[in-house]
Amino acid sequence: MLSQQSLDVAQRNATLSCRDAAQCDAVWKLTKTYVEQSSKERLTRADDAAIETDVPSGSGKPVFSATRVANGNGGATISLFAQCKGMYGDESARGSDFDDCATKIISVQNGFVTYLRSHLPAQ
């Protein structure tokens, strides 16, 4: 059985820092592609600060979003987030689709940095 802790670890793993505007722009473009490929819903926002999809239409279908937070020296921290309808019940109790959603979310979040590194030009 999956735990909230496993999800929290995957969330931490789905964060990457980039060092300058050129690298961050390349990472951000790849992040948009990854969100589009991983989500079951269409993009509703894609600008310099956030990439978002529509809310999940059906239970058990995760959608992903990302944020880009500048760090002041041209670099940024890019994070991938997830949500899944049916994952939580009242007062954050486990919902009926928790395990199914968590499995999908953990897989996508844990694969995020690997995907970026495999598609970025060698530094």
Q: List SSEs in N-to-C order.
A: HEHEEEEH
Q: Ranges with pLDDT <50 over ≥5 residues? A: none
Query: How would you sum up the global shape?
Result: elongated
Largest beta sheet: what is the strand line-up? 1-5-4-3-2
C-alpha end-to-end distance? 39 Å
Compute the number of structural domains: 1
Mean pLDDT: 91
- What share of residues is helical? 40-55%
For the largest beta-sheet, the strand count, sense and barrel status come to: 5 strands, antiparallel
Tell how many strands the DSSP assignment holds: 5
Our count of helices gives 3
Strand content: 15-25%
Structure class: alpha+beta
Rg calc: 15 Å
List keywords for this structure.
single chain; 3 helices; 24% strand; 5 strands; 123 residues; five-stranded antiparallel sheet; alpha+beta
Structure characterization notes:
The chain has 123 residues and is of the alpha+beta class. It has one domain. The chain contains 3 helices and 5 strands; from the N terminus they run αβαββββα. A 5-stranded antiparallel sheet has the order 1-5-4-3-2. α1 (4-13) packs parallel to α3 (98-119) and α2 packs antiparallel against α3. The model has no long low-confidence stretch (mean pLDDT 91).
